[in-house]
Amino acid sequence: xxxxxxxxxxxxxxxxxxxxxxxxxxxxxxxxxxxxxxxxxxxxxxxxxxxxxxxxxxxxxxxxxxxxxxxxxxxxxxxxxxxxxxxxxxxxxxxxxxxxxxxxxxxxxxxxxxxxxxxxxxxxxxxxxxxxxxxxxxxxxxxxxxxxxxxxxxxxxxxxxxxxxxxxxxxxxxxxxxxxxxxxxxxxxxxxxxxxxxxxxxxxx
Length: 205
Prior knowledge:
Blueprint lengths: L6 H17 L3 H6 L6 E6 L6 H5 L6 E6 L9 H13 L4 E7 L3 H8 L6 H14 L1 H5 L4 H21 L2 H8 L5 E8 L4 E4 H4 L8
Parallel strand pairs: 1-2, 1-3, 3-4
Antiparallel strand pairs: 4-5
Helix pairs in contact: 5-6
């Protein structure tokens, strides 16, 4: 078996840090003062969809949480705690659900095979499939059907956010949280805003 050399990442880090220190001697001291991100992003754990790389995010710009298939589960205290901290402590007003085409979690939920413990998590996406089964049945091409399911799953997580205590408490306090549904497309490298794609259609974004 081929040994993986992780030292290249540490070498890259040294070069990166040196370059930033050279261009701005106060860069890291400013980071130490605290964070002021402008949005919370819930993305997929897939290694190919790094928000920092795709969106050109600088350190401190986004508060990021990632899990399999960017799911908002009402039993996931990890994400709910992240969301509460983002809204109540960091005063974040924008929340992005960031899905991607070719999502392995979405595909596994659709194929409905046994995946061990993972099935407990995928049940959240199977609910999306059940809610939109008639719409999905109208799509014959399997690839297009999975792409549609990725979009529907992303939109469904927006609706799940609206049902959280954090979101409802924010509304009660007069805080206007803006929710955004974005999907990354491997084939083009572009991120699509589903609000624009579904404009005028009977889908809540």
